[in-house]
Each structure stands twice: as structure tokens, then as C-alpha cells.
UniProtKB/TrEMBL annotation:
Protein name: Acetolactate synthase large subunit
Pfam families given in the database record: TPP_enzyme_C, TPP_enzyme_M, TPP_enzyme_N
Source superkingdom: Bacteria
Molecular function terms, GO-annotated: acetolactate synthase activity
Domain Thiamine pyrophosphate enzyme N-terminal TPP-binding: 1-117
Family note: Belongs to the TPP enzyme family.
Residue ranges of every copy of the Thiamine pyrophosphate enzyme central domain listed in the record: 188-321
Chain ranges of the Thiamine pyrophosphate enzyme TPP-binding domain: 383-527
Entry EC number(s): 2.2.1.6
InterPro entries: DHS-like_NAD/FAD-binding_dom, THDP-binding, Thiamin_PyroP_enz_cen_dom, Thiamin_PyroP_enz_TPP-bd_dom, TPP-bd_CS, TPP_enz, TPP_enzyme_TPP-bd
NCBIfam families: PRK08322.1 (NF006187)
Keyword Transferase in record: yes
Species of the source: Congregibacter brevis
Length: 550
């Protein structure tokens, strides 16, 4: 058979469902082979970056890689930002790029560049198919590496002449393996260290939103009564209605949740990635006792040096820990500061819930209304900008992966294409993206993709006519900011041009009705909200005056 046919068969044997991308001349053979697949769907995108974000969200929600595809040269460079975002946010992904003939890779030639070397820093593994018979091994390894904790992106480059060759090789049958767990003695030692603390607190990171890990974490929390702070990417690991939920931590400045860590005599980091919230921000002296449960040994850092580690499958290690505490219950911990943290955060969240004034709407009010509609079983995807900080602080979901925030690589332009990918994973789920007016326009062309697929999504744009997060950060450091303002399109005309349902909200009290209308609409909806980012500076001033109280 032709090598490109074998390539597709190998993808089918790995149960790859989607390839998102923009093809070119150099992967024409692959595209012809893919067209004959009965189990893989190709989604034509309007930009390679959008394709990568769609594949990233698919991987984050399912734990199984989808593929994103580009041609060589500029197609590959367009792809790389989304790939880097997926890799740093631990999303399994296959990256498929075309390449010119192997007979011209060694010399100056049209559109030829070393794609593999370019992608090596932003993938777990990157490889070129030099010989057609190696395709089964390369794809089997690629999928295994992409799925292995911590998950990430893997690149396979297929040169155009290799794709055309004949081969007698056949796909390798996938064999899954069980992740290892810590020894029983290590689990008992870990439990003893927790029992020796008076005010332990749990810091739940990205690794905790895996379904089984979240279930076991909730059980551990119920048995021990230890409070949980989640990172931006750990949202939904514990239910916000649980009394032990201390909400989200991760702002660059001191916040209410920091009080719980300051008071703790032991931080139990579970599934924590340092790319989420660097330890120097919550353990500045490096003297806070820390223990860790994670898939891999802890990264070396002077501010994060765990005394004890349970390395291996998080869910299984948590289950073993639950068993120890169930057999030998704790006598209880001092949770007064944690109770105060939860109380103060709840009061903060409700401050502007009833706001119904006209004009720019407060971020707190918007998120209060969004959470009522989407917080139980829906999905919110955040883009990157000032709105991300408000979503992280004020939006709470009850299911793991109920809120997706890019917080490792932090790439703008994520949320619109990400929502399209999410709608393919679960067409019946209520999905909303929140974007700034800057981030939305970075991948605005994918509005056509959403319309073509009839994606059942709502995209809310917070309009402030500026790069609001940069203005916020500059103002914090320098007391002023540079000119960061820009103009915007007529949003109603833009929505009409792409045949999207459109609403503009000018009064806070109109938000519930507008959100419900968008949610109930079949197909893509755009909701425009003029946002009151004067709240940014007010939050900075309030947190600057923060004192921890019980």
C-alpha cells in the first residue's frame, strides 16, 4: 500500500477521531488517504493556530490526542503557538506537518526549513519519517509519548516523497499500560507527615482535574477536613459547595487565598505544575514545608522542595491515602483560618451580584450570571487577558475541566477555536467562551468554521478597546500605562457577516436574559459586553491593603 494510506491506518488503530488543520501541497497524498477513512474526521480550519487550539481542547477534555495538521514552512510556523500552548498546559496532541522531498532537505530550497528542530522546544518528541516502513513504530510511539504523564504534544513530519512510496508494513496494535503507584510504606509515611501537621492545606493543580483523580481528592478532603486551594487549571477538582473548598489561587499579588497558605504549617501539593503558579509567589522564603503527590518527581526549585513525595498515578495514590485515613481517622486539624478564607472569598464574590446599572458592566456581575447558567455541568473557556484574572478569581465550576484556562504558555486567541473543539467532544454540552476584544480578533476567522460546523457555542466578548491586562500590569508597576488602545469592528455587522446570532448587553440587569437566549440558540452566538475595567485597579488597591483575619 502507499505510505500515506498506512499512516492513516495507524492513526485509525490508535482511535484518533479528529484531524484539525489547513492542508498544503506537501501533504496532498496524506489528505487523499485521509478522505478514505471511515473513522477519522478532518475539520478544515481557517488558520493553523486555530486548528492547534481545537486539538488542544479536545485533548484536555478527553485525555486522548487529536491531531492538528499543517503543511511545511509558514503553515508550520502558524501552528507552533497553539502547539506550545497545548504542550505547556499538558494536553495530549499529535502535530502532523508536511515537508518537501527528502532529496532537497539538505540544501536551500523553496519553503524548506527545519521544522523538527523548530518544534523540539515545544513538544515532548519530534521526528521525521525518513523511511516508509517506520511509520507504524513512529505513530505508536508518538501516541504513547503524547498520552504519557505529563501529557503533551508530539510532532510527526511526513515528507512528500515518503508519503508516495509503497510499503508492506502494517499498523502496530496499541497496548496500554497501568501507571505505577507509590509503595505502601511510602503512603503510610506520607500520611504520618500530614497527621503531624496542625494546619495543613491542599494545593490542587492541573493533575487533579483528571476524572479519577478528582473523585479521590474529594474523598480525601471529606475524610480529613483539609481545605483545598485550586490553581487556575485545577478548577472543578473539588466542588465549590464543599465546605473545604477555598477557591482559586494564582494571581501574581497577595490574595485572600494566600492567607490560608501563610497560616499553613504544611502545603500538600497535588498534581501541581510550577508553570501554573510559581512557588516563589506563595513560598517566597522557601521555608514552607511541602509534600507532593504527582505523576512525576517534583521539579527542582529552591522554593519547592518536597519533604515527601508520592510519585505515580495520582488517583491510585490518593485512593491509597484515603484508605490509610479511613482505617486510622485523624483527630482533626485547626481550620479556623481556612474557614475565614472561604467566608471572605464568598463575600467578595457576591459584592456586585445585584448590579443592574447601565454602561460598562462590572466583571464580578458578569461572572456571577455566567456561573448560574454554566457552573454546574457546562463548560467555560477563558481566553488570555484581564478577563482571565477575573474568571480565575470569580468563576467556579462543579465538574473537573468545567473551566479551561490556558495558564502555562498563556496564548491569546485560544477561546474561540477551543470552544469549537469542545463542541465536537460533546455537542450537547452548554459551552461558553469569554474573550477580550483583542484576543477574540486574533482568531476571528474561525467564526466561519463555527458556522460551517453549526457549533452550538456562545462567545462573549468583553469590550474595553485596549490591551487591558497589559495596561493593568503597567499601571501596577509604573503608576501609568503606555498607549494600548485600539478600535473595534461593528460587532453586529461582524456577527451578521458570519451568520451568527448576536446580542449586545448595555445594562447589568439584562445579562441573565441575554445569556439564556444565547445558550438556548442552536448554533453559534456572539454576546458583546462593555466591561468596567476600572475594577482592575480597585482590586489591586484592595488586595494591597489585605490583612488576614479569622
Amino acid at each position: 500500500m502507499k505510505a500515506s494510506d498506512l499512516f492513516v491506518q495507524c492513526l485509525e488503530s490508535e482511535n484518533i477521531e479528529y484531524v484539525f488543520g489547513v492542508p498544503g501541497e506537501e501533504n496532498a497524498d496524506f489528505m487523499m488517504s485521509l478522505e478514505n477513512s471511515s473513522s477519522i474526521r478532518f475539520v478544515l480550519c481557517r488558520h493553523e493556530q486555530g486548528a492547534a487550539f481545537m486539538a488542544e481542547v479536545y485533548g484536555r477534555l478527553t485525555g486522548t490526542p487529536a491531531a492538528c495538521l499543517s503543511t511545511l514552512g509558514p503553515g508550520a510556523t502558524n501552528l507552533i503557538t497553539g502547539v506550545a500552548d497545548a504542550n505547556m498546559d499538558r494536553a495530549p496532541m499529535l502535530v502532523l506537518t508536511g515537508q518537501g522531498s527528502t532529496t532537497r532537505l539538505h540544501k536551500e530550497s523553496h519553503q524548506i526549513m527545519d521544522v523538527v528542530k523548530m518544534f523540539e522546544p515545544v513538544t515532548k518528541w519530534a521526528e521525521t519519517v525518513i523511511h516508509e516502513d517506520t511509520i507504524p513504530e513512529i505513530i505508536r510511539k508518538a501516541v504513547r509519548v503524547a498520552r504519557t504523564e505529563k501529557p503533551g504534544a508530539v510532532l510527526i513530519e511526513l515528507p512528500e516523497d515518503v508519503a508516495k512510496r509503497e510499503t508492506s508494513a502494517t499498523p502496530i496494535t496499541p497496548v496500554r499500560y497501568r501507571r505505577p503507584v507509590a509503595a505502601a510504606a511510602a503512603v503510610h509515611e506520607f500520611a504520618a507527615r500530614i497527621r503531624g501537621a496542625k494546619q495543613p492545606v491542599i494545593l490542587a493543580g492541573n493533575g487533579c482535574v483528571r476524572k479519577r483523580a478528582s473523585e479521590q481528592l474529594r474523598e480525601l478532603v471529606q475524610i480529613t477536613g483539609i481545605g483545598v486551594l485550586n490553581t487556575f487549571m485545577g478548577k472543578g477538582a473539588v466542588d465549590p459547595d464543599m465546605p473545604e473548598c477555598l477557591y482559586t489561587i494564582g494571581l501574581g499579588s497577595k490574595d485572600i487565598g494566600t492567607c490560608a497558605i501563610d497560616a499553613a504549617d504544611l502545603v500538600i501539593a497535588i498534581g501541581f505544575d510550577m508553570v501554573e503558579y510559581h512557588p516563589h509567589l506563595w513560598n517566597p522564603e522557601g521555608d514552607k514545608p511541602v509534600v507532593s503527590i504527582d505523576f512525576l518527581p517534583a521539579e527542582i526549585d529552591e522554593h519547592f522542595n518536597p519533604e515527601n513525595e508520592l510519585v505515580g498515578d495520582i488517583a491510585d495514590n490518593l485512593a491509597a491515602l484515603v484508605g490509610v485515613f479511613r482505617d486510622e481517622p485523624t483527630e482533626g486539624f485547626d481550620t479556623a483560618q481556612q474557614a475565614a478564607t472561604r467566608r471572605d472569598m464568598q463575600e467578595d464574590h457576591k459584592e456586585h451580584a445585584a448590579d443592574d446599572t447601565a454602561g460598562p458592566i462590572k466583571p464580578q456581575k458578569v461572572l456571577f450570571e455566567v456561573e448560574k447558567l454554566y457552573g454546574d455541568t457546562g463548560l467555560l473557556l477563558s481566553d488570555v487577558g484581564a478577563h482571565k484574572m477575573w474568571i480565575a478569581r470569580h468563576y467556579h465550576c462543579r465538574t473537573p475541566n468545567g473551566c479551561l484556562i490556558p495558564n502555562g504558555f498563556c496564548s491569546m486567541g485560544f477561546a474561540l477555536p477551543g470552544a469549537i473543539g469542545a463542541s465536537l467532544v460533546d455537542p450537547e454540552r452548554s459551552i461558553i467562551s469569554i474573550c477580550g476584544d483583542a484576543g477574540f480578533l486574533m482568531n476571528v476567522q474561525e467564526m466561519e468554521t463555527a458556522r460551517r460546523l453549526n457549533s452550538n457555542i456562545t462567545v462573549m466578548v468583553w469590550e474595553d478597546h485596549a490591551y487591558g491586562l497589559i495596561a493593568w500590569k503597567q499601571s501596577q508597576e509604573f503608576g501609568r500605562h503606555t498607549d494600548l488602545s485600539f478600535g473595534n469592528p461593528n460587532w453586529g455587522h461582524l456577527a451578521s457577516a458570519f451568520d451568527w446570532h448576536f446580542q449586545q448587553v448595555e445594562v447589568g440587569g439584562d445579562l441573565p436574559e441575554a445569556l439564556k437566549a444565547a445558550k438556548d440558540h442552536i448554533g453559534p452566538s456572539l454576546v458583546l459586553v462593555p466591561i468596567d475595567y476600572r475594577e482592575n485597579q480597585k482590586l489591586t488597591e484592595r488586595l494591597g491593603e489585605l490583612t488576614c483575619s479569622i
